[in-house]
Write a structure and sequence with these properties.
With 221 residues, the protein is mainly α. It contains 10 helices and 3 strands; from the N terminus they run H-E-H-H-E-E-H-H-H-H-H-H-H. The chain has 2 domains: 2-72, Arc Repressor Mutant, subunit A (Orthogonal Bundle), CATH 1.10.10.10; 77-219, Four Helix Bundle (Hemerythrin (Met), subunit A) (Up-down Bundle), CATH 1.20.120.530. The chain has a 3-stranded antiparallel sheet with strand order 1-3-2.
């Protein structure tokens, strides 16, 4: 059992690191992920690599392409619009479902995560930016008390890793996201669910816009 648990844990570590590589633009859309290279990089067995790639495929971040193996997905502008429209619907609904007033302990936790994100932005610690952002949003949406809605939101956010890479290191984008996090905390504190829902939708737009503009610029649209 110990060996199995260790193997599962290692798979999750590899998945997490590859996801962060995608967000930070270290791995690009359409780039091929080669088993041998990943096994050497992470110093792991090939079966662990295959399991990690399978999880990435299940989450929609990579696909198996005939003749190319496993490659990182590239979304079209239309697909991004559809994905972010869905995210806006789900996240605004979750925001409106949060029981108010929010428990003080939860407010303290969320506020601490917003400050951790702000600190990471200040230090340009991009790995911590990604992790604090993920924890911040997951903690908020868990408050809606609908596990299936929360799970779906988290899955769609994971798919958006392919979109966020285009703006993840932009200083202005990071500062704006930091300020929006503070505004979200303020809305939670004041139990203003309509404002919270609007802020959650607005918070999605910069990454969406940045990616769509980039794709259209590349394709000359």
């Amino acid at each position: 059992m110990g060996a199995i648990s260790a193997s599962i844990g290692r798979v999750q570590e590899v998945v997490k690191e590859l996801e962060e590589d995608i967000v930070l633009g270290r791995i690009y859309p359409r780039e091929r992920l080669v088993e041998e290279q990943l096994a050497e990089r992470f110093d792991i067995k090939r079966h662990v690599v295959r399991q990690a790639l399978l999880e990435l495929e299940t989450s929609g971040l990579v696909v198996r392409s005939a003749g190319k193996g496993v490659v990182v997905v590239e979304y079209s502008a239309e697909e991004v619009d559809e994905l972010y429209t869905l995210r806006g619907m789900l996240e605004s609904e979750a925001a409106r479902m949060i029981p108010c007033p929010v428990d003080d302990n939860e407010i303290v936790k969320i506020e601490a995560l917003s400050l951790a994100y702000a600190d990471a932005v200040e230090r340009l610690d991009m790995q911590m930016v990604i992790r604090a952002n993920k924890q911040f949003h997951e903690t908020i949406y868990a408050l809606c008390n609908n596990r299936f809605l929360t799970m779906t939101i988290n899955k769609m956010a994971q798919r958006s890793n392919l979109v966020r890479f285009s703006s993840s290191t932009d200083a202005a984008h990071l500062v704006r996201a930091r300020d929006e996090h503070f505004a979200i905390v303020t809305a939670l504190k004041s139990s203003d669910r309509d404002e919270l829902a609007a802020l959650c939708v607005e918070h999605l737009q910069p990454s969406r816009k940045h990616y769509v503009e980039r794709i259209r610029r590349i394709k000359g649209i």
